[in-house]
Specification:
Elements lengths: L3 E3 L7 H10 L1 H23 L4 H29 L2 H18 L5 H28 L6 H26 L5 H7 L2 H11 L6 H6 L3 H12 L2 E3 L16 H26 L1 H7 L6 H27 L2 H21 L5 H14 L1 H14 L5 H53 L8 H4 L6
Parallel strand pairs: 1-2
Helix pairs in contact: 1-5, 1-8, 2-3, 2-5, 2-6, 2-7, 3-5, 3-17, 4-5, 4-8, 5-16, 5-17, 6-7, 6-13, 6-16, 11-16, 11-17, 12-13, 13-15, 13-16, 14-15, 14-16, 14-17, 16-17
């Protein structure tokens, strides 16, 4: 009799590590390109004569592109498969990044930032679905945590590159074009990755899936549910799935609005808060980025030990407190500023991972990428509005009111989590996607 094993009983192998590493390339590039523009704007503003309106448009252009890319290509990935699409989008990111080096007007910059947002947005539902579908129940919190960490690694790398190129003549060109280098590396790493086995099953290609599993693991692998399913975009609008999409979109929005504000306009915010200006403010942003990254590490383990729901609620509570302190205390000291930002960044690790983990757990394979894309698209509506309004809001109301507004957003995320956050730890993907949640 041929030996077989349940997919959930497979140990963590080199193929799992390769899929986790190279699949996380999209989030790395997202963090990189969103942060590098904030530093490049320091040089671009006088070169292209950007006023507050143009700065806001540059800030939201990528986010609008993300909205379109995630909503459109998530469905395409559910229909055509994961592997092909996440090769194509990496090539497109590299080409557009290279083109951005040669912009000569504000409009050209906005258009290219919009286009790069589309292709990065395409990668989110494709790559995260691929990683989730190759992860066992025990591995999911770690692999999704790795995705979140790669976003922060990309953001931190952008801060470092921006710092090194800050005083270079026309350094903004090299900042914006530097994304080509990781694109090439990621493309080479992804080239030989296999198709998602769960996607093959849902498309009725069971024998192809079994052959793939035997090739990868040297034994026959069985899944809990091998029934083929037809992909229809309308399925995400059933009551159960639509409620999950709205929940994920809300917590994603409440986590990323303050975070995107800090990252996109990080040097300017730090300067307004009283830290050094210019190049040294960029260095201060590196420190903040490292705290965001560090916060992901314990959260990877807390998600399995403490659980998804309590970690999400508790993290939002502490993040609210950190931002509220900066808004309430008059003339805060440098120590208080750094401590509050560090506290916010550290405890954003839990929500930062769950915005990737929850959508991949709550939806079945045949609509997973579509649902992830829809949730992410909805979250980008709030971030687009806030990123455009942030420089104007800061200019009119000051940094204290801006911090209080961020605290209010985090508080709303906590309240929604109290009512809607499910507990999905220790459940297989087949079971979490069939839970009676609401």
């Amino acid at each position: 009799m041929e030996k077989s094993k349940r997919f959930d009983d497979i140990s963590f192998t080199p193929i799992h590590r390769k899929i986790m590493l190279w699949g996380s390339g999209g989030p790395f590039l997202d963090g990189y390109v969103l942060v590098i523009i904030g530093i490049a704007l320091e040089q671009l503003t006088p070169v292209l004569q950007l006023d507050a309106r143009w700065v806001g448009l540059v800030g939201i252009a990528t986010l609008v592109g993300l909205f379109i890319g995630t909503s459109l290509f998530g469905y395409i990935a559910d229909v055509l498969g994961r592997r092909l699409m996440f090769l194509i989008d990496i090539i497109a990111i590299g080409v557009i990044s290279a083109a951005t080096m040669f912009v000569t007007s504000p409009l050209e910059l906005v258009i290219l930032r919009f286009l790069i947002g589309i292709v990065i947005g395409a990668d989110y539902p494709i790559a995260t679905s691929m990683i989730a579908e190759f992860s066992t129940t025990r591995q999911r919190a770690f692999t999704m945590g790795f995705i979140a960490a790669m976003w922060y690694i990309g953001a931190t790398a952008a801060d470092v590159v921006g710092y090194l190129l800050y005083d270079v003549e026309n350094g903004w060109r090299w900042m914006l074009g530097s994304a080509v280098i990781p694109c090439i590396i990621i493309l080479l790493g992804r080239f030989e990755l296999p198709e998602s086995p769960r996607w093959l099953i849902r498309k009725g290609r069971v024998e192809e899936c079994r052959a793939l599993m035997f090739k990868l693991f040297g034994e026959h692998v069985v899944f809990d549910d091998e029934a083929p399913q037809e992909t229809r975009y309308s399925q995400i609008f059933t009551r159960r799935h639509l409620t999950s999409i709205l929940f994920v979109a809300i917590i994603w929005t409440c986590q990323v609005i303050p975070m995107f504000g800090i990252y996109t306009f990080g040097p300017q915010i730090i300067s307004l808060l009283g830290l050094n200006e210019g190049k040294e403010a960029v260095l201060g942003n590196v420190v903040i980025s490292l705290f965001f990254l560090i916060g992901c590490l314990p959260a990877m383990y807390w998600l399995n030990s403490i659980g998804r729901r309590p970690l999400l609620i508790g993290s939002f509570a502490i993040m609210t407190l950190a931002l509220a302190v900066l808004g309430i205390v008059p003339d805060p000291s440098i120590t208080l500023i750094v401590s509050a930002f560090a506290l916010y960044a550290f405890f954003s690790g839990g929500p930062g991972i769950l915005q990737w983990l929850y959508p991949n757990e709550l939806f079945p394979t045949h609509i997973r990428a579509s649902a992830v894309g829809a949730a992410m698209s909805l979250s980008r509506i709030g971030t687009v509005v806030s990123t455009y309004a942030l420089p104007l809001f800061m200019q009119q109301h000051g940094i204290a009111m801006t911090m209080l507004a961020g605290a209010g957003i985090s508080l709303f995320g906590m309240v929604v989590s109290v009512f809607l956050a499910p507990e999905t730890r220790n459940l297989s993907l087949d079971k979490t996607s069939q839970m009676d949640l609401y």
